[in-house]
């Protein structure tokens, strides 16, 4: 069961509208003005889905990397600073995308003159209209609030660089804001009219911006989760180098995107609905993201079977620039090979994939095995989870080899080798 749903921002896409978008995206490339950008940070981690209320810090982990967003303070006319909350929801995601887009579009001017000023009143209002969001007093108030929350927040990254070493990098998005204080309460709340992004943030965006199709985004503005999945797949699928694909478990997906769901079952349901929307506006991915299962096998040591999604290489909606530098937070995968691949077509036209993924066993993992499991591995036998031996089982097997008759349980007897069973029988009947 989820908490009360956050305010729906954009129009909920109808089936005819999705079909029309699919036809447009499939039949023509986007116009230059229809190419917008998101930073690769928000393609791998996400902001809160709903208002965190009094929380001052938002922390998100993906792989070995941690992103922390610290809420800021806002100076007032009276000289006091008041705390403002963390950015959240659809609006914050789209505004961040709007900032990144304006920075990338003004890149040439910045490189020539160093100018970093963004006219929020002009550019953000145009972006909101273009993306299909409501230009109402209620929503504009939300936009103003989210702009201030983003502008005053501090972003920190912990990036591992070695086994026992990491670095912390702090980035502030803006170094200057031009604020308008309305004298008449009916004129609304405090409004930032111009902003100056920091030099570091500008260069961060220019180097790590991911191009996206505005036509697709227009159909996803009713769901934070759908936006997050579109961001993720846009930058992830094109980086899959393994021809056999990569597997992402439900547990891994829940850790990144399940923050506001009280149960995994509700998350699974909402995730599938959001993913179907994304596939409709990213048609190249429709058959390249498949639900299924994966059994991980370290060398000859077979592990548990996990459920999740198989990802296959897919060209991005918009080709990346030649100087694009992917900022990869996700855990690096070990080279592997697949076996026993089973692909089934469902009645709905999708497919499910089941396979065993074999990755090399490290020396340390091999040394931690029992002698019998080591011997079985070296002999080329695959050891299933139910065949693994506990410490107690290893001790009993050693006693058996020394000529004693341990009290094996029925489950332990099932794990004995033929030679051990023969030895046990001889000792019992002797």
Describe the fold and architecture.
The protein has helices spanning 15-27, 89-105, 107-113, 120-130, 137-152, 199-208, 214-218, 224-236, 250-257, 264-281, 363-367, 371-378, 391-401, 410-413, 418-429, and strands at residues 35-39, 57-62, 65-70, 73-75, 81-83, 118-119, 154-162, 165-172, 174-180, 191-197, 209-213, 246-249, 289-298, 301-311, 337-345, 351-359. It is elongated, with a radius of gyration of 27 Å. The chain is 37% helix and 24% strand. With 430 residues, the chain is α+β, with helices and mostly antiparallel strands. The strands form five sheets. It has a five-stranded mixed sheet. Among the domains are: 15-240, no CATH class; 369-429, no CATH class.
Structural class by secondary-structure content: alpha+beta
- Main pleated-sheet profile: 5 strands, mixed
User: What is the typical, i.e. mean, pLDDT?
Assistant: 79
Distance between the termini: 62 Å
Low-pLDDT residue intervals, each spanning 5 or more residues: 1-9, 184-188
Strand content: 15-25%
Strand order of the largest sheet: 12-14-13-16-15
Oligomer: single chain
> In total, how many beta strands?
16
């Amino acid at each position: 069961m989820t908490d009360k749903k956050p305010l729906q921002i954009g129009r909920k896409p109808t089936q005819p509208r999705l079909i029309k978008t699919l036809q447009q995206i499939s039949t023509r490339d986007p116009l230059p003005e229809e190419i917008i950008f998101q930073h690769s940070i928000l393609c791998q981690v996400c902001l809160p889905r709903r208002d965190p209320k009094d929380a001052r810090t938002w922390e998100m982990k993906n792989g070995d990397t941690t992103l922390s967003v610290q809420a800021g303070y806002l100076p007032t006319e009276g000289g006091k600073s008041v705390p403002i909350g963390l950015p959240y929801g659809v609006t914050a995601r789209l505004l961040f995308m709007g900032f990144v887009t304006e920075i990338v579009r003004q890149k040439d001017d910045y490189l020539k003159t160093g100018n970093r000023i963004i006219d929020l009143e002009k550019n953000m209002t145009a972006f909101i209209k273009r993306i299909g969001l409501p230009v109402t007093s209620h929503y504009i108030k939300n936009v103003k609030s989210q702009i201030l929350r983003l502008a005053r927040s501090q972003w920190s990254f912990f990036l591992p660089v070695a086994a026992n070493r990491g670095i912390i990098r702090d980035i502030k998005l803006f170094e200057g804001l031009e604020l308008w204080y309305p004298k008449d309460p009916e004129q609304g709340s405090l409004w930032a009219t111009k902003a100056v992004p920091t030099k570091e943030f500008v260069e961060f965006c220019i180097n790590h911006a991911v191009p996206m199709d505005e036509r697709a985004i227009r159909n996803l503005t009713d769901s934070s989760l759908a936006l997050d999945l579109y961001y993720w797949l846009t930058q992830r699928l094109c980086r899959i180098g393994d021809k056999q694909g990569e597997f992402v478990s439900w547990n891994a997906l829940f850790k990144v995107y399940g923050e506001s769901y009280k149960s995994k079952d509700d998350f699974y349901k909402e995730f599938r609905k959001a993913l179907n929307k994304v596939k409709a506006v990213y048609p190249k991915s429709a058959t390249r993201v498949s639900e299924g299962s994966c059994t991980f096998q370290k060398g000859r040591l077979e592990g548990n079977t996990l459920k999740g999604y198989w990802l296959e290489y897919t060209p991005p909606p918009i080709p990346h620039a030649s100087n694009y530098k992917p900022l990869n937070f996700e855990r690096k995968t070990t080279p592997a090979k697949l076996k026993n691949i089973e692909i089934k077509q469902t009645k709905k036209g999708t497919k499910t994939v089941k396979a065993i993924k074999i990755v090399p066993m490290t020396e340390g993992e091999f040394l931690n095995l029992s002698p019998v499991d080591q011997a079985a591995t070296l002999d080329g036998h695959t050891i299933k989870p139910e065949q693994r031996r506990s410490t107690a089982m290893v001790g009993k097997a050693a006693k058996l080899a020394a000529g004693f008759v341990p009290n094996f349980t029925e489950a332990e007897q099932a794990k004995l080798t033929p030679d051990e069973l023969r030895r046990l029988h001889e000792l019992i009947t002797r």
